[in-house]
Amino acid sequence: MELSVLDIVLWGVLPYVMVVVLVGGLVWRYKYDQFGWTTRSSQLYESRLLRIASPLFHFGLLAVIAGHFFGLVIPMAWTEAVGMSQEFYHFNALLVGGIAGVGTLGGIALLIYRRRTTGPVFMATTRNDKTMYVVLTAAIVFGLWTTLVSVFEGEHGHNYRETVSPWFRSLFILQPDIAAMAEAPFSFHLHTLVGMALFVIWPFTRLVHAFTAPFHYLFRPYIVYRSRDRDRNGKRRGVQTGAATRTPSTAARPGWSAVGTRDRDTRNR
Ligand code: HEM
After folding, report:
1. pLDDT higher than threshold 80 for residue 256
2. Choice from 56, 68, 89, 165 to test ligand 1 binding pocket (greatest atom count within 8 A of CB)
3. How far away, in angstroms, is 186 Cα from ligand 1 center?
4. CATH number of 5-211: 1.10.3720.10, 1.20.950.20, 3.40.1000.70, 3.10.20.30?
5. In the chain, where are the structural domains located?
6. Per-residue b/e over 123-150, b at no fewer than 16 CB within 10 Å?
7. 159 in Cβ contact with 80 (< 8 Å)
8. Residue nearest to atom 27 of ligand 1 (CA)
9. Which of 102, 125, 178, 189 has its CA 20 to 30 A from that of 149?
């Protein structure tokens, strides 16, 4: 197959530029903006919608990432070797991937709705955040589009495990299979390009929190913004200061004692 310059740039050069910007950007941000390494949580302003939208989005995305790992990293020959037919693989990929993708899209839609309709949250939204939301949503929508196209085309549809997946794996051995990726349909090209754009802007947005280490962040206790201390009879204990009552903060519950988190917690939020 004759390769065009555009194919070479898009599938042979751009992925490596993306990795350099992603890694370089993360190093730069860590060096110069360690205290800005945060989600800039808006939980303090609104938590009712956030409690539904955030897990929906994050758990959906975890399932989407797992699907990408299976689809892009595990070669077709391996699933065939363990007796998994193409039809069975694709049926499950479309079903599970579709549910995960719709969940992620629902989550992000709710997060954006909340951000737009809750005054203080909207006020705390920067232009940087808005750009990030557009690219993130586009990556999810175009991803789902590839899934939808596959559903409608059925067994005559395009098998991305013969084009996108070998290309993806070839990048890691520094021998990009540009011809394989060039053969994929437009929907896959678009989704992959937007996906790469998301990785390029990643270090410079609040998405940086996803690369938080050490990983005790995942298991740390919730941050207590405000607590009511009660005595044994259930009465509020507090310090009367004029009209206002100041309450001392509650001691951390045993199951949630912070392990190795100390003052770092505030930085990772
Ligand atoms: C840049 C590298 C990426 C590649 C090569 C890639 C490739 C693919 C492929 C081949 C599919 C079709 C899966 C199927 O129909 O079974 C897909 C679906 C999807 N992708 Fe990506 N993707 C990339 C990045 C991303 C990113 C960054 C996101 C979102 C944050 C994303 C979100 C989705 C979603 C929501 C779906 C549909 C549901 C699913 O199958 O999980 N992708 N992607």
Report:
1. no
2. 68
3. 14
4. 1.20.950.20
5. 5-211, 215-269
6. eebeeeeeebbebbbbbbebbbebbeeb
7. no
8. 195
9. 178
